[in-house]
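pasting for ref
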Amino acid sequence: MSANTNIRRVKSSDLELKDRLVSIQRVTKVTKGGRTFSFSAIVVVGNENGIVGYGLGKASEVTTAISKGVEDAKKNLVKVPVFKGTIPHEQIAKYGGANVFIKPASHGTGVKAGGAMRAVLESVGVTDVLAKSKGSSNPHNLVKATVMALLELRDAQNIADHRGVSLNKVFNG
């Protein structure tokens, strides 16, 4: 997760979490005795109501790797502001070689995003958003960059509290 933002961590107890498999990779290790195959799985979990987390699981079997990824994702849950099915404002984030851009969209637009970004945005509960991935298409970095972008989002109430003014003054300002 991001160290420079105020992370809004959430406990996984009492939540209806749905998991989505983002990517599964077969990893080969060549040893003196031959090849050893293992699997790594990137999993995103969320309650589709503003809470999302991601995790990485590695094991010698696919199902074990996925279940380890789900357990890891449940340890890294964060709260994200979702307003009327979209995000409050535009946001850009970068992680490794992956650059992501997310922008709010009007009702009925749908989730205009590719692969790894789509899994994260749907898990958090965003139904209308425009998203673009620039740079690397590595699913590991895309998931991390998307979560970083969502963590940097601020809702109007948060901004009003930070400025010490009323919610009305934020909009009419």
